[in-house]
């Protein structure tokens, strides 16, 4: 087909030893540089001997499975042979490296950070919270990333009245929209889960 046959979009699966890696050769619905960084971290773990790749046949089967999965959500053609889903791909590599943040752990140990990671934008900072390459400044960077995003758009810094009704409505609207987006994303990738839960709830209420 049109897919590039690289394991995790990085390693050729037919080499005797993993001595060649392709970094940044990818197309996504998100930023390329964070993904290239994650690929480089994955490669570094493999080259250093901290991560062992599966057998050649297992990698080839993984490439075939990945191709089938991506074709369910995207049109894969000769013009888009490198397409991946940004969040899924980042989480997949992060899991292999050992740096994927545990939302359950954050929920019980650092709820403010949990909210930022769960409802906030997916950026490279959250993959520096734990595991190899952990960065002590990752938490602060996550809490201030929106400030850095909005700052260039302002001509002057304004004092915001936190208790204003408008501010509360805006905040509530953002929470509802992000929650709805998260629910939609979950439903697209797990189409049977929500209907099953709803049917169980309906039976209990009846």
From TrEMBL:
Q: Which domain of life is it from?
A: Eukaryota
* Annotated protein name in UniProt: Dimethylaniline monooxygenase
By which gene is this protein encoded? OLA.16560
Family in the record: Belongs to the FMO family.
Gene3D superfamilies in the record, alphabetically? FAD/NAD(P)-binding domain
Q: Which UniProt keywords apply?
A: FAD, Flavoprotein, Monooxygenase, Oxidoreductase
> GO molecular function terms here?
flavin adenine dinucleotide binding; N,N-dimethylaniline monooxygenase activity; NADP binding
Q: Which organism is it from?
A: Nothobranchius kuhntae
């Amino acid at each position: 087909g049109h897919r590039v046959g690289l394991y995790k979009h990085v390693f050729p699966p037919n080499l005797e030893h993993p001595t060649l890696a392709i970094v940044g050769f990818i197309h996504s619905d998100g930023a390329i540089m964070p993904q290239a960084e994650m690929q480089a971290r994955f490669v570094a773990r493999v080259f250093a001997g901290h991560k062992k790749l599966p057998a050649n046949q297992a990698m080839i089967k993984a490439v075939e499975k990945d191709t089938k999965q991506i074709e369910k959500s995207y049109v894969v053609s000769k013009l888009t042979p490198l397409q991946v889903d940004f969040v899924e791909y980042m989480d997949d590599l992060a899991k292999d490296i050992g740096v994927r943040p545990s939302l359950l752990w954050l929920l019980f140990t650092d709820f403010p950070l949990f909210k930022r990671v769960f409802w906030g934008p997916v950026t490279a900072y959250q993959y520096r919270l734990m595991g190899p390459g952990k960065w002590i400044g990752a938490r602060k960077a996550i809490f201030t990333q929106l400030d850095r995003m909005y700052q260039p758009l302002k001509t002057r810094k304004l004092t915001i009245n936190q208790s204003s009704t408008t501010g509360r409505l805006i905040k509530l609207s953002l929470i509802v929209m992000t929650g709805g987006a998260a629910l939609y994303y979950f439903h697209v990738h797990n189409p049977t889960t929500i209907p099953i839960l709803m049917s169980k709830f309906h039976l209990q209420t009846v």
